[in-house]
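[stage:ingest] chain + small molecule (heme C)
[stage:ingest] validated
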Amino acid sequence: MFACSSGDIFEWASATRAPRDDSLLKANFMAQALGLLDYDAIALGEKDLAYGRAFLQDAANQHGLKFVCANAIDRTTKETIFPPYAVSERNGVRVAFIGVVSPERHITAQVESALLDHQIEIVDPTEMTMKVMDEIRAKADLVVLLSHTGIESSEYLAEDLPVDVVLVGHYPAIQHDPKEVGGAVFAMAGSKSDRFGTLELTLTEDLSEVAAFEGDAIRLLSKGPENAQINALAVESDRLDKERKKEQQLARQREREDANKLQTTAKIHQRGGVFGAESCKSCHEPVYDTWMQTPHATAFATLAEADSWDDPDCIGCHVTGVEDKTYVADVNLPPEVWNVQCEECHGSGLQHARDGSYMTSGEATCRKCHDPDNSPEFDYELYSSYGVH
Ligand code: HEC
Ligand code: HEC
Ligand code: HEC
Ligand code: HEC
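[stage:predict] done
[stage:export] tokens:
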């Protein structure tokens, strides 16, 4: 028995020129699992090629994957980037597998530009295959074309090329009964590893031709392959994928929180560094409650009663501002700064310290407002004894 694939093993779920992290993670697991299956040859689809030569070479070396591709070449050297074909021998029968990839059909712009980035060019499959055909024929009894070009192009290739079998890739259709096209056995088994195609060939005595064939596209069990090692890989891949997604989500959340914090901080600076007494209440409720009993807590209402709430000459001493009070020029004062609040005496909540340094500055603080003009009776000892909270 021989086993092979017609390509696009690795999904390209990326809207960019590079594979996304989750695609790479899965591609690595796919390569490992594929290694366990020990295929005779794996044609490269354009999505595989988009991962780049380094990734593919690494996967091939690490997991013994036999990639074949006759028509993907290096832009500079013009050499094929993987061997065009591979030959396997079993029970005295030598089978050659040639890989070709579609030069134009259904290649997305992202895949196209990824191929460009990797200096990979896809050229004419017929011409490139014919170049090595004599060499292949000398080495093999049977020639299988792994045609990652879709159904129409594969039909043309079956007509044009002296091959015995064409296995179609790059096309989602399923065909249960292989047919004959252009003298070759023509088969396809769908996409997304839903199925695997089987093909039983009876060769003529001298092994030179296919005498009879029979095949099917068999549905794989939805729970996955019945191979403990591969199952373990699938479970591990899912676990890592979930973990990665969770981390991404947390990072996004942190980013949002940081952005919100920045925005809040910006707003606080805009209103002279004032959080507002409400924000202190949650931790200092008894102090807040007693402060509410003091005239300071209603100083803005007093102004309003005097019909001067929008008089720039008055506002400064009847509202709170720590960094500066230039905002009072704006008549639409935010309620957070109304009245003589905690931060007027303790400083901005932005600097909240818990080491005794976040205390009132004492008499000088009071005298900023309690000046002879506005508070002629002010006496620090006496006024303090009334209690600020
Ligand atoms: C330099 C700071 C400052 C400015 C400016 C200021 N006030 Fe006052 N205001 C105070 C202080 C301090 C008190 C409390 C006086 C006290 O009880 O000793 C006060 C008390 C008051 C009171 C209640 C007590 C009273 O005198 O009836 C009113 C009303 C008032 N101010 C209105 C105004 C108006 C109107 C203006 C603008 C023309 C103004 N304030 C500008 C600091 C100021
Ligand atoms: C008019 C100025 C002034 C205002 C307004 C003010 N404080 Fe004070 N605060 C003081 C002074 C003065 C002390 C006592 C300092 C000392 O004992 O050395 C103090 C002490 C404190 C203390 C430490 C001792 C204690 O009583 O627990 C806390 C906490 C405190 N204030 C929180 C607040 C909060 C919260 C608000 C607003 C709801 C507020 N303060 C409003 C001046 C003020
Ligand atoms: C998240 C809780 C929390 C919030 C909100 C908070 N504080 Fe505090 N504050 C504390 C803790 C905890 C201490 C230290 C322990 C104590 O003495 O209560 C403290 C101590 C203080 C002190 C004592 C001085 C010092 O340096 O030790 C002052 C004054 C004070 N806070 C004022 C404020 C003001 C004004 C606000 C609002 C702008 C505020 N706090 C908001 C938790 C908070
Ligand atoms: C931002 C300006 C400002 C600062 C700072 C300030 N006050 Fe006042 N204070 C006022 C205003 C305005 C009033 C009048 C409020 C009202 O009647 O509506 C007032 C009223 C008072 C009153 C009530 C007086 C009365 O006649 O009932 C006391 C007591 C007082 N302040 C003590 C203090 C002490 C003590 C300090 C310093 C630790 C201080 N204040 C800091 C603006 C200020």
